[in-house]
Amino acid sequence: MHFENKVVWIIGASSGIGAALAKQLAQQKALLILTARDSDRLHSLGKELNTLTSCVVLPADIARRDTLHIIVQDTLRKYGHVDIVIHSAGIGQRSLAIHTDISVYDRLMEVNFFGPLTITQLLLPHFKERSGGHIVAVSSMSGLMGFPGRSGYVASKHALKGYFETLQVEHDIPGFHITIVSPGRINTPLPLSALTADGQPYNKMDDAQLNGIPVNTCAKKILHAVQHKKQHLIIAKKERYLYWLRLLLPAAYYRIARKAGVKERHTASM
Ligand SMILES: NC(=O)c1ccc[n+]([C@@H]2O[C@H](COP(=O)([O-])OP(=O)(O)OC[C@H]3O[C@@H](n4cnc5c(N)ncnc54)[C@H](OP(=O)(O)O)[C@@H]3O)[C@@H](O)[C@H]2O)c1
């Protein structure tokens, strides 16, 4: 079992992809640290997983940047070190740029970009000292191309991918790896907490989300990529073709993406 006795810190573990990863890693006897804001959900997952492996819960809000150095110290104290960090915390968006309050962009950047960035900066000396470590950055297909109704989300995921891709090519830490994951739609409750134009949660599931790739399949592919030290992993259905279209036939990509934009404008006006 590749992950046995590896210390894995999952940030965004209370739901969706992070929770699915926690369950699969527990089966493989990884030593887990679970982080998210919802302490009750984390504790109930922790209780379930403690029957399989050692699992500690460390609730935190990664948008509170000034507290993250304490969170990182607390994490390192739990098992004395960390082998793998999974950045899965994130929030989505459902609003056209023209209607969207600037505070929504701030929030999306804080959670989806500055949180993971700050934690990574704080951990790099630890990985350097240990000559090893692995960071998994859950970006999105929205980190590779634009998508209507997601301007702030897309910007945050482009920033995330840009930062980690740069780290991949500039670090000189032996035994240290980064895997960037770009999922398309995965069947998780992400739309429920997605921010609308005034910052209120969208609170609905879209059909496209419900028909997304099963979350356990997504988690399995991520763990396979980590085990094989893959630098970039795309987990997507239709979005994969849109991405290739953008690279090879950009005019076709713009036509299709604009069509999705018309649909989004219609939804936003209802
Ligand atoms: N589902 C998809 O279709 C899809 C596609 C592409 C990329 N992704 C990315 O995958 C990652 C996981 O999303 P998901 O689909 O699993 O959605 P999810 O079920 O909503 O999970 C999001 C996780 O992030 C945590 N989180 C949100 N804000 C946080 C904060 N300020 N501090 C700490 N934790 C926070 C949530 O926990 P609390 O609410 O308890 O804090 C939850 O555990 C996200 O980065 C998302 O952008 C998802």
Can you give a write-up of this model?
It is globular and about 50 Å long. It contains ten helices and seven strands. The chain has helices spanning 16-27, 39-49, 68-79, 102-130, 151-170, 190-193, 207-210, 215-227, 238-248, 250-269; strands at 7-11, 31-35, 55-57, 84-87, 133-138, 176-183, 232-235. A seven-stranded parallel β-sheet has the order 3-2-1-4-5-6-7, with helices on both faces. It has one domain: Rossmann fold, CATH 3.40.50. Helix content is 50%, strand content 13%. It is an alpha/beta fold and 270 residues long. It binds NADP nicotinamide-adenine-dinucleotide phosphate. NADP nicotinamide-adenine-dinucleotide phosphate (NAP) binds at residues 12-18, 36-38, 41, 61-63, 88-91, 111, 138, 140, 183, 185-186, 188-190, 193, 212. InterPro entries: KR_dom, NAD(P)-bd_dom_sf, Sc_DH/Rdtase_CS, SDR_fam. This is SDR family oxidoreductase. It holds the Pfam family adh_short. Belongs to the short-chain dehydrogenases/reductases (SDR) family.
Domains counted in the coordinates: how many? 1
**Ligands present:** NADP nicotinamide-adenine-dinucleotide phosphate
The fraction of residues assigned to DSSP E strands is 5-15%
Element string (H = helix, E = strand): EHEHEHEHEHEHHHEHH
Main beta-sheet strand count, sense and barrel state:
7 strands, parallel
For this structure, what is the CATH class? Alpha Beta
The CATH homology group name = NAD(P)-binding Rossmann-like Domain
User: Helical amount among residues, as a percent range?
Assistant: 40-55%
- Helix/strand structural class: alpha/beta
Principal-axis shape? globular
Number of helices: 10
Spatial separation of the terminal alpha carbons? 51 Å
Strand order in the largest sheet: 3-2-1-4-5-6-7
The name of the CATH topology is Rossmann fold
CATH-derived architecture: 3-Layer(aba) Sandwich
Mean pLDDT: 96
List segments where confidence is low: pLDDT < 50 over at least 5 consecutive residues. Answer: none
Number of strands: 7
Rg on CA atoms, Å:
18 Å
Keywords: Oxidoreductase
Protein name: SDR family oxidoreductase
GO molecular function, one term: oxidoreductase activity
Family: Belongs to the short-chain dehydrogenases/reductases (SDR) family.
